[in-house]
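for the record, two folds in this file. i put them one after another cuz i was lazy. first one right below, seq on top, structure tokens after. the second one comes after a little note so u can tell where it starts
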Amino acid sequence: MQSVPMTLNGAEKLRAELTELKSVTRPRIIEAIADAREHGDLKENAEYHAAREQQSFCEGRINEIEGKLSGCQIIDVTKIEPTGKVIFGTTVTMLNLDTDKSVTYQIVGDDEANVTAGKISVSSPIARAMMGKAEGDEIVVKAPAGDVEYEIEKVEHL
């Protein structure tokens, strides 16, 4: 199995969610199931069925997170010597050569991607176009609306 890259911050968020699910959510659901059982006939007990469904979702999410954490390669870009080249985890500021507007993105793992927060997946077309390039390089991103040209202004290890 190939390891999936993940930033240190992304891994910490997953660990925090896992702790929350195991120490807060799971016990609350178990308690809800026990309470619902006390109400008698389980066949027609909506509270029981809802709690069991929540339990199934919770356990599925716990397994999913544990799988992701066990199969990931955590990369802390702040510990990598800056070379000016775009690598996983770097924060890149680019100038759109058509609109003269700058955009800044951090290249993160697939699970961490959130464009509105300025985090793009390492497998996205824009990240693939940037990888290995350096400050001052021009790149062309293949977009559905046509090719977009950018100049890489700044590469930061934040």
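(here's the note) second protein begins now
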Amino acid sequence: MMTLLAVLGLAAVSLVGVFFFGKNGHLTGTQRYILPFTIGAFLTIVFVELIPETLQASANYGLYAVLAGYLLFYMLSIVLRTYHHHHNRNAAGDTCAADKATALLLLWGDAVHNVTDGVVITSAFLVNPTVGWVTTVGVALHEVPQEIAEFGVLRAAGYSTRKAVVFNFMSALGAVLGVLLSFFFMNFASAYTWVLTGVAAGNLLYIATSDLLPGVHRQAQKNNTFFTAFFMTLVGTLTMLGVIVLL
């Protein structure tokens, strides 16, 4: 029940991000502060909770699950080419030529990504509720700029504000499907839940190092804010460590 509430909250947060930042989707502040914080949070969750939990359940094969998870999402990022779209892009600026077919393809790709978010969050709750909620918050922070960009693509493609919001929310509900698939897996293969935690670790590791970090680095290089980026990453790390240790 907590997992379903978490992913429903995640879907709602994605919409709140659209309204909070507005239609223009200015992402500079997001990349300067929120994304470095999220990198630190994700790396902490991976190395302090998910990988140790995976290795405790399967010392011989756990790391293979982590590696498989990383490679799986690397492959998805290439195949879908819509895995993330928040690399310092003005959501309405460079998408003027987008048509509705492209926008719908974007939604389908993002829906697949949201399914994986549901698997990740379920895996985190398998460790303990605290890690589950912390992971949900981290995923939500990471989703905000992506949802802004997606909203901009839908508007540029000619969809009304109402339709863009509805389609965005429907795509975000893919996380619920990810939770249901994870529950199905646990019911029929409970002895292999370490596969879920390992794949989730690989996913978060890919997002932090291969997806978020390059965009943050470019932003820091452009504005000479390397110290700020590193400081916010450190804040994210220490915050998640504090939450995990205290709770």
